[in-house]
Amino acid sequence: MRVRIAAVLALVLLLAGCTGGGGPDDGPITLRFQSLAWQEESVEANKELVREWNASHPDVEVEYVQGSWDSVHDQLLTSFEGGEAPDVIHDASDDLADFAYGGYLADLTGLLPERLRSDIPQRSWETATFGDGVYGVPFLQEPRVLIANATWLKESGVRIPTPERPWSWAEFREITGRLSGDGRYGVAWPLKDPVSATLNLSLSAGGQLFHRDADGKVTVRFEAGDEVVPRTIHDQVGEDGSAPGSLLGSGGSDTLPGFFAGRYAMVPLGFSYRQQIVQQAPKGFDWQVLPAPAGPDGLTQGVSPQTLSIAQDSPHKKEAAAFIDFLLRPPNMVRLALGDWMLPTGSRALADPALHTTKDDWAMGTALAAHLRPAPAQSVRGYPEWKDKVATPAFQEYYSGAIGLGELRERLEEDGNLVLARYQR
Question: Which residues of 240-252 are buried (b: 16+ CB within 10 A; e: fewer)?
Fold first, then answer.
């Protein structure tokens, strides 16, 4: 009997040694960090920080994994369901709701240090808060701005808007009309993704679109404030001739050759597009960043910050949270912001002098940071499906003139609420 017991114990110890028990002799922990950085400067900044972490944390090694914004939602869903999700996940806050409610992401409430929690404003934390939990750390954000041909605007004599005295939406439409003619346009709207641009800019006009009742149920209501931005775009294209309809299905980068060639006075783009302009603009081309038009709620606009989350299935949540804290120390957050040409959410990083220079209009972006609020769709379950199947085709048809405002409202509300209802049962 003693021989048998000894043999069994020896076998158990052997198996434990083969599978690894998490002890100090098992080698370093490995964390997989999936990054969506894509610009050369941003990729290098992320990889440099990973190298610095690995050099100073021999017991916790981080493996850099390159992801893509084009396929991140479906790729993550597949990895979650297959049990192969990365430990640390780079995404955007408006993509987190279904993953958070589905139990795929860890609640970070008790994992993050006070330094990080207090440095990021509450309005930013709200973008990654679902129910009673926090499922991502918002760390980079960008306002939508007007990139303008400075020479054209100066020669036209129009009033140049500032954050203290922006254009109204009505004034913006009037000015783009004045700037148009002879084959040139006051503005070019690249609306390959019309939903987020329209909804986020509509906050300035009082638009909300998604309304949550006391029971937490969300319904779509397309009200007066929601009409201002889409009607402005529709009329610039279809009535004023101040915006070309040919670019409505284009991405932001597609507008730059025509912008540099003097065909469009302004292009509404994300703040980070300045990098492409610096790299691609012909020598001597003078451009500037202007604030987006304002409505009754001022310069307020919605934003979906980039986020860092931890997979619920990760066996190393504490270590993953420590790595996130390292990445988002104020000097490191500044490096990430500069690499992506975006704004950090952290208050200490945002105050860094490097982000307040007039060169490349960094100061204009930081002046707009306080006006950024959670995007209207932030916590709506079923938003990705609503966006892809209902809102995107409806807005595209409205902007092209195929349907009117009444049919746009009907489709957003009736078809949209049918989609959302499936996620709220």
Answer: bebbbeebbebeb
CB contact at 8 A, 89 and 309? yes
Closest CA to 364 of 297, 290, 294, 301: 290
pLDDT band at 26 (very low <50, low <70, confident <90, very high): low
Residue 423, pLDDT score: 87
CA atoms of 227 and 412, how far apart (whole Å): 12
Other Cβ atoms closer than 10 A to 4: 8
pLDDT for 83 beyond 90? yes
Please give the mean pLDDT across all residues of the chain: 92
Stated as kind and residue range, the H or E segment containing 62 is: strand 60-66
Q: What are phi and psi of 148, to 5 degrees?
A: -120, 150
What is the C-alpha separation between 298 and 165, in angstroms, rounded? 10
What average pLDDT does range 388-411 have in this prediction?
Answer: 96
**Helices then strands, each counted (H, E), the chain:** 20, 15
- Stretch 288-300: mean pLDDT: 97
User: Following CA atoms 152, 155, 156, 161 in sequence, which dihedral angle do they give, to the nearest 10 degrees?
Assistant: 70
Strands (DSSP E) found in 304-362: 306-310, 343-344
pTM across the whole model:
0.89
Name the DSSP letter for residue 355. G
- Collapsed DSSP state (helix, strand, coil) of residue 58: coil
pLDDT tens track for 108-151: 999 999 999 999 999 999 999 998 999 999 999 999 999 999 99
CA gap 220, 208 in Å, rounded: 9
Interhelix angle 194-202/392-399, rounded to 10 degrees, is 80
Tokens standing for residue 403: 């349907």
